[in-house]
């Protein structure tokens, strides 16, 4: 997963990025409200960690702006404000979760996976798409109970397609999601990885919409 951190504290920002990387999650970090993206069409974030007290504006206003613009990316508020009114204001403004500082890294990681699980409408840490099971935290995938031998890129591909089974993911978006911190993956390389993945899970499970992208059969 790729995480956006909106946090002005330098020490905490570095600590968050280190903790996310240790847990296999990539991230980008901004310290001001006016440096945070307004649109996410070209930014494939899976979750946002948002502080409420920020230079350049209020985190709560940014949260409301995103939700008013139809941004549905899961958002976890991370803040020192622990009063009930503050927690209710954050949740009522569209936050998916609210975590009071200081917090344990393990709890933050669990909450990130929890909001992502709800976002993709999965009931547990094991995602089920037909006879395919995926465990994002363990980087494991099974077909009819048998462990699949997938390369890191193949696993990332099936994970991205499993976020919305039956919905076509455009090649452009897929290429960015596969390398959120680097250059987008070349379309020809994606085709090769898709071909290898089809060989391992069955060609009928990944459908091509020519000129658009791919979908995982639900």
TrEMBL record:
PROSITE patterns per the UniProt record, alphabetical: OMPR_PHOB, RESPONSE_REGULATORY
Entries under InterPro entries matching the protein: CheY-like_superfamily (IPR011006), OmpR/PhoB-type_DNA-bd (IPR001867), Sig_transdc_resp-reg_receiver (IPR001789), WalR-like (IPR039420), WH-like_DNA-bd_sf (IPR036388)
Residues of the DNA-binding region: 124-218
GO cellular component: cytosol; protein-DNA complex
GO BP annotation list: regulation of DNA-templated transcription
SMART domains linked: REC, Trans_reg_C
Domain Response regulatory: 2-116
Residues bearing the modification 4-aspartylphosphate: 51
Key words, A-Z: DNA-binding, Phosphoprotein, Transcription, Transcription regulation
TM segment ranges: none
OmpR/PhoB-type domain segment(s): 124-218
Pfam families with a match to the protein in the record: Response_reg, Trans_reg_C
Source species, domain of life: Bacteria
Gene Ontology MF annotations: phosphorelay response regulator activity; transcription cis-regulatory region binding
CDD domains linked to this entry: trans_reg_C
Protein name: Response regulators consisting of a CheY-like receiver domain and a winged-helix DNA-binding domain
Organism from which the protein derives: Solimicrobium silvestre
């Amino acid at each position: 997963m790729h995480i956006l951190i909106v946090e002005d504290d330098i020490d905490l920002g570095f600590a968050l990025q280190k903790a996310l990387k240790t847990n296999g999650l990539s991230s980008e970090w901004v310290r001001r409200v006016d440096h945070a993206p307004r649109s996410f069409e070209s930014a494939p974030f899976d979750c946002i960690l948002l502080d409420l007290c920020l230079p350049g504006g209020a985190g709560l206003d940014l949260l409301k702006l995103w939700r008013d613009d139809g941004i549905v990316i899961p958002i976890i508020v991370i803040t020192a404000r622990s009063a009930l009114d503050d927690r209710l204001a954050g949740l009522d403004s569209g936050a998916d979760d609210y975590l009071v500082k200081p917090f344990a890294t393990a709890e933050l990681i669990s909450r990130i996976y929890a909001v992502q699980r709800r976002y993709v409408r999965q009931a547990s840490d094991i995602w089920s798409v037909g006879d395919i099971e995926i465990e994002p935290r363990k980087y494991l995938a099974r077909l009819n109970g048998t462990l699949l031998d997938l390369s890191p890129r193949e696993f990332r591909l099936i994970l991205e397609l499993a976020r919305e089974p039956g919905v076509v993911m455009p090649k452009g978006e897929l290429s960015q999601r596969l390398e959120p911190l680097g250059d987008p993956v070349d379309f020809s390389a994606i085709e090769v990885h898709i071909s290898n993945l089809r060989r391992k899970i069955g060609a009928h499970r990944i459908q091509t919409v020519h000129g658009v992208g791919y979908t995982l059969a639900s």
